[in-house]
Amino acid sequence: MVSDALESARTAEEQNRFYYGPVKVRTSPTHVYIASSCVCAGKPNVKAGSGVYWGPNNPRNTMSSVPGKQSDARAALFAVTLALLSAAPDQTLVIYTPSLFVIRTFCYWTGTNYTEGWPCENADIIKVTAELLRSRSAGVIFRATTQTQVNNHAREAHILAQKAARNPRLPSAALPEAPVCDVEGSTPVDEADAKVFTTVPEESPPKRKLVDVTDADLDPDPPAHRGRAAERALQRENLQTLLNVTSNKEFWNLVRGWTDPKQRTAQVSAEELREVFESRLNPPQIVPEEFDKDERERHQNLCDMLPSSTPDTTPHRTFSRPFTIEDIEEVKLHIRKHNIRSAPGIDRVSYRKILQIPNDILVELFQASVLGIICIYSKPC
């Protein structure tokens, strides 16, 4: 089960696809522009607003205050919520937003946040909006609008957001309930087609000039031998990689990749170990003559007096209650906060790998492990 659990680990992209489900309908796209605004940021009277613009004189054009804490980030997230609430779920939607944070939240980080119990900031809005995206049968494409690409629609969305933020009489908006959705449903159009998609990279590329390495930077007079050209090419590649690291973390990861021992194939299989230890740890089928039969009988009688199972008398049934998804989410949150950078153990399984394993599979694994231990200790001697 452990091997199966490790093999089930999903990358962030796979987690996203699993969470949102497949695209079931593909149509000609509808376009909507969203924006956010925040006035008096950092002051007690801070106010944020969201704007959604579908087009001239469109009845779905909306401006709204933001539920809960007031900030520009929450306004940008809530603008997506408003757009989805007024969009047809069976029609392909293109959302234009100036916020790269919003795009990355829903296109890259939702699956991870979901498996870890939504530990992110502004989780209330993100969770509801993600469920709205999940409940759609058609896909959603997020596109970024920059200052050089602003058009009338983007300006109108920003004007609506500003009006909402500057209107003291506008009542505080209520966050809608997350819809109950079934991602299975009808046959998908294309399994490889992501339901929520963007061309914006997850991380902005670093703005730096790479250092070029030539043969002049290497040993000018290397000894002649077969394979010298390949060796110098590798030296040049390694030196260029080393000179272009941008942080201490990147440097030490590179050094460890060069110097850490490589994994070796086990010389003794698990099955061979099982056969050896099975005969050593289990009682012999035929009792040897050198055994004290009276002492063995006394131990057997004591074992027979033990109950087949021990009642769990703890207040919260700590030792007997089944594991839940919430337990796994709590553990993953703790790992991300305190242990995410810990080095892997001898099994070479990192905490990042564990975070990628689906929660339901971890529940089954932990439950089976506990039941296995209970069965072992419940057997008569």
Automatic annotation (TrEMBL):
Family: Belongs to the RNase H family.
Residue span, RNase H type-1 domain: 31-127
Descriptive protein name: Ribonuclease H1
Coiled-coil spans in chain: none
Entry GO MF terms: nucleic acid binding; RNA-DNA hybrid ribonuclease activity
Superkingdom per UniProt: Eukaryota
Biological process according to GO: DNA replication, removal of RNA primer
Gene3D superfamilies the UniProt entry points to: Ribonuclease H-like superfamily/Ribonuclease H
A Pfam family the protein falls into: RNase_H
